[in-house]
Sequence to fold (302 residues):
Amino acid sequence: MQDFSGKLAVITGGGTGIGRALAQQLAAEGCSVAMCDISEADMKESCGLAMQGAPQGVQVTGFLADVAMEAQIEAFRDDTLARHQTNHIHLLFNNAGIGGGGSFINAPRNVWERTFGVCWYGVYYSSRAFLPALMRAEEGHLVNVSSVNGFWASLGPDTAHTAYSAAKFAVKGFTEALVNDFRLNAPHLKASVVMPGHIGTNIALNTMREFGDLLSQDVPGSDAEGQGDATAMGESFRDNGLDPAVAAQIILQGVRDERWRILVGLDAQGLDQAVRQAPEEAYERDFMDARVAPIMPQLISE
Fold:
């Protein structure tokens, strides 16, 4: 799919970050967009920004939905097809995600399962809901956003990171399996898994907004006394990562190139190589100090 003009793309988590950047760039290329998000305010802003750079004939719609709720995703699908007056889509970007649920031992179970639900079941429910519409297109591409934590289940030697990592490993495995499934059963479709490194998004701040005080049992500095520090860390994460617009450019080029595996950022590329070279050492302190610190120094310093 070299040309996105005249196509219809569906994006989950379109209210901020990579989802917003994808919507803007696709709309600017003449692609209509249907996005969902859990924040109506963020989503409306994204829709407005996407329409600013869109040529005549492009339609951008938003729908308030929680991707972890299958009925809401099905309602989003129905709304998309009705408002865009079509029975098919061309692109599906399963992008929505949150953090939290770091420790399987200490994190509240509802926080752990909520994180896993958004990051894994959000991808699964959306893929289930939109696959028939994707298959009805002459050509289609399903893009699932995993993470470097989909091949390296860590945030550094002193931080547990189980729910998010488990979900992102699931997303990666699911997408890799779809590559062959599509070749056998839907050869006009392609699948890609995206594995970003540190992208400057609001994911940390959105996680705080989602869980609030529940994170105090799981995240250092997120209790009532350390809320300011946690907010500052979230803002630092947002302000010091790769620009989401650059990440979106890399992802869309990967779609054009029909690459099933899209690493986003030099840190993602370096970490991928490091884990492949020394998989048995990947969770040892020496691996962190010698291989990870030069690539992702914030994991060591924090």
